[in-house]
Description:
The radius of gyration is 23 Å and the shape is globular. The chain has helices at residues 18-25, 34-47, 65-73, 83-91, 108-117, 127-140, 178-187, 208-226, 252-263, 276-279, 312-316, 411-416; strands at residues 4-7, 10-13, 16-17, 29-33, 53-58, 77-80, 99-101, 121-124, 145-151, 173-174, 192-197, 233-235, 269-272, 283-295, 298-303, 322-324, 342-345, 354-359, 369-372, 393-398, 401-406. By secondary structure, it is α/β, with parallel strands linked by helices. Strands 4, 14, 15, 16, 17, 18, 19, 20 and 21 form a 9-stranded mixed sheet that branches. Helix 2 (34-47) runs parallel beside helix 9 (252-263) and helix 5 packs across helix 6 (127-140). It folds into 2 domains: 4-31 and 280-416, Lyase, Ornithine Decarboxylase, Chain A, domain 1; 34-278, TIM Barrel (Alpha-Beta Barrel). A hairpin with a 2-residue loop joins strand 2 (10-13) and strand 3 (16-17). The N and C termini lie far apart (58 Å). Ligand LLP is lined by residues 58, 60-61, 79, 102, 162, 199, 202-203, 237-240, 273-277, 312, 316, 378.
Amino acid sequence: MTGFTPANGRLMVDGLGLDDIAAEFGTPLYVYSGAAIAAAFTRFQQAVSGADSHVHFALKANSNMAVLRLLARLGAGADIVSGGEMARALAAGIAPEKIIFSGVGKTDGEITAALEAGLGQINAESAAEVDTVLRLAEQTGLSTRLALRVNPDVDAKTHAKIATGKSDTKFGISMEDCPALYRRISDSDAVEAGGLAVHIGSQIMTLEPFENAWVNLLELVETLRDDGMNVPALDLGGGVGVDYATGETADITAFGALVTRMFGNRKLRLGFEPGRFITAEAGVLLTRVIATKTAPSKDFIVVDGAMNDLIRPTLYEAYHRIEPVIDSTAEPAATQHSGRPADVVGPVCETGDYLGLDRHLPAMTPGDLLAVRSAGAYGAVMRSSYNTRPPAAEVLVLDGKAHLVSRRQTVEELIALDVIPDDLK
Length: 425
Ligand code: LLP
């Protein structure tokens, strides 16, 4: 059994007790199942295999070097959005040819570095960016495939902060502007025309938004091809969602069937950029109870993990399941009590610092362990040291062994980044 499963009242990961892992590495702690990451990657890859598909893991979801190394070994390419992510992907051993550089604001320095590294594809998000890539490719004599990220003006029906496909977001180039820009790319000797890219948003649970976007995209492909331009590939982005209430993913088989139906017979190489689908369910945030308390209208479980470790609950009102690592059948105790639901909150000095609201949990006592589920994507990557709290460390379980894959920074290291000017000494 891979991933996170209970056995004899104890939450396990790939055969290891999460309580033992917490005892060894401390809390708050992200724990990933290598087997679950590999299984999700393979499931995605197989689902889209009815077309000429290539899977580029979106580093923004989880860019831990050990996780990337694992995915690189499975043959994953990478979708990156910064020079920093490029350095990670390359250092993890992902071939430059398999790396796609997306993102709405690439600097000259980042584009030059991408050309020098020989990245397979750059997705331009504006007319200005097309100009910049062409200029830098001419100056350096280094080529790449240059694609246009299209804004297909579709509603992804997801949280407003992670929807990117409507024309009023900062992402992509309008359908109307694409033909003239693609002509500029096609006419240039400095780069190869790389086709079109689209990413309409994240955490998408139904097929309809994808289908709407892809219909628009295919129309554009026809227009460009009718005008004699070469459109070799489509980058269809990421966005396949996960139901955080159950841990089930969106129906990837149906997604794959749609891919086959719409693209199976076309002369198009396809790229996919899944992030959440690959790692969300493969990770938990382990946190220990510091105290419980009661207010007139509420109960609270105060834990050592906080919004600086996992910001999704407060930033997106995201729901993450929270489960005791050791399942106690004890009655609710006298403080937390009355059977009232409790908020699971961190120590950060903000009312918005919570991991879960109104949860029904068994009685908790200080030292008890909780697992915040579905935390393997957009968890550790978004952590910070707010309140000068060294953020959670990360552990990856591989073949029944737990490995520390990012260590906890010390307070001294955090402070050492600051510089006191001589005048203040
Ligand atoms: N490709 C591009 C161009 C993207 O912008 C994104 C995500 C992805 C791929 C991967 O999307 P996924 O398959 O993971 O849905 N921090 C937010 C999610 C932000 C997603 C941003 N872009 C969260 O915690 O829900």
